[in-house]
Protein 1
Amino acid sequence: MKTLLFVGAALALATAGFAQSQTPNAAQNPNPSRSVLTSSGSEDIEFVINAAQGGLAEVELGKLAATRAQSDEVKKFAQRMVDDHSKANEQLKQIADSKSIKLPTEIEAKDKALMQRLEKLNGAAFDRSYMNAMVNDHVKDVSEFKREANAGRDPQVKSFAESTLPTLQEHLQQAKTTRGTSSARTSSTATKSPAGNANN
């Protein structure tokens, strides 16, 4: 009888000890079946996805403008958008792959709608609409990249934002300058046209 009691007590102690040894692990990983996606915070992941989405749009819109724009300045700007954002997109893809973040592969609905509107325009009207969109987009881009560069948690994503921000700031300044030049040329042409018709 004493032997049975001893064995029972030992078994109870062993069971309790085992349960205690498992508790910390369970607390550390309450759902072991879920693997960690990335060391990034949710804001970092959102930034990466949004930056990739915006980069895709800049490339596609740039390709359209490089062939459709009337102004040489607008065409030059558009080609820079294709070149710079293609490069940034590739860097972003490498970061995303290393962190198992799935990036979008096509532009979103609002950018598709913008492309459809631009495809219906020609000449100065196209240039004006495209450059207005580029100024607005890059104001937003610069703001988002500044926020990530200052407050990002993931060192790799933060470094990407910091290194890309100066280029985006250049884009914004060039977009404003190109828009102004294009608008001035359009106004000048419109002013001269009535006089030319009068001479005829």
Protein 2
Amino acid sequence: MSGEIYKTLSHRINTWVYPPGQRLTEQEISDEFKVSRSPVREALNMLVEASLMDKMEHKGYAVRHVDIREINELYDTRLVLELAVIDIVCKNGMDESLRSHLTQRWQQLYDALPNMAEQAALEDERFHEILAEAAQNRVMQRMLKDIDQQIHFVRLSDITDPERLKTTCLDHLAILDAIGRRDREAAASSIQRNIEWGKESGYCHQGGAGPCVLYYLRIAYGWFSVEGALCRKNIGTRQQRDISRI
């Protein structure tokens, strides 16, 4: 039961149903899921271990604030891992039917421009997951999955316009072509460009939210800026104070 609670709560955190600073107690979660506090406590501690929540003494739990430095470090680590994935895939090869399927899909997305795919950002996320799976290194897969979970929201805010999707399509097609030719250098160059562009379009290096993140919050969740903070409509003053300044 704790696993199901963890999955539900982590999804709410990653999609900002629970914004940074949102406080949760064992009792309210227990009441919602109609279970005892024991599995709830286990799930909340799992969220703490996954760096999604902070445990506050005598105050319950709170969703972690957005840490721009940590986001940048996660992207840097992701780049190192994905370069290693590319090295392995180019060395060992990729199933040709899978490579052909991916090439066809991203060519379709490119040909459909300027129309946007409904879940372009999720398709991008799945593309990188498939590359990791093709490397057949379970440790790398687990590490990348953990990083993806922590930067999921940033990645959702990444591909929000046709020009960005065009760049992503071209990068992915170049990566697949290079893998087919076993050209490690070309594949590595394309994936590095792809990841670094995603990092910079989501968050700027000066330590604030990038335009894609702000756009996504306003459109998807009705958030607005108040004295440098991001707040959501129809929430109380106390909740506004708890929301992270990003």
Protein 3
Amino acid sequence: MVNASDLRVYVVNLRRRADRRARMTRVLPQALSATFTSDWEGPFDGRELSIETLSSAGYELFSWQIASDNPWYARALTSGEAGCALSHLWCWRDAAGRSEPYTVVFEDDIEFAPDFISRLLAALGGLQDGQADLIYLGRCRRAPDEPPSPDRNLPMGLVVPGFSYAAIGYLVTRAGLAALLAADLGRALLPVDEFLPTLYTSHPRADVRARFRHRVPALAFEPPLVWDVPDAEADSDTRRSGAISAVGRGGEAERADGDGACVEVRVAVVRHPGAGDEQGAVGK
């Protein structure tokens, strides 16, 4: 039997977003006790990223921008995306030193299904060994899920996902956690919701496929257990942050007004073969 105490829970949250922390504290299911990344000293905030904070800590960027008709691929990685990826990475590293069999990561702009705990624990209790090491609690489908198969004998409410975006809420087993860390995301930072599907399926881009080859079995809740709050309420720091380029913080880069500062930094960029090869059209 799986209990809430078997879950190590994290919430990705910026220190300056105390409003979001307060909201998540209110809406988080009472059975869960969460660690907030805003309690850590880390390079998570796009406003604070610089060549010193990334390079001196040993982090490198994946060469994300390519010539493509897909606008998501044809633009540079943003400072908010880099900081968000590092927040998730630090959650995985912290969880690796803990003993709970499951790690759950939430972002701080989500809503929960009223029956979140009962559905989650029931599904985990019904899983067979090896059926899933990554489970999406909420996602954005970009490719069809696998058709249901009686041979799989999945617990009710779980499906085998096709290519999906969103890292708003997911669960990993100890084996899944090991796969996340073995992929060494810190040496090739890219949007975390582009990274997660590389664990279980083929990414549309050849350069991403070449860099991230680890595979784990994945499932997803359908209907989802969590979902994004409406855009008007979310006030996303990641979406409104500026591109990372060759100008460091405090230099010539233009800053946008408001929360989404246009912070551009000079960091090491990792290039991989096949950067121009796209498999299908998966857009955001």
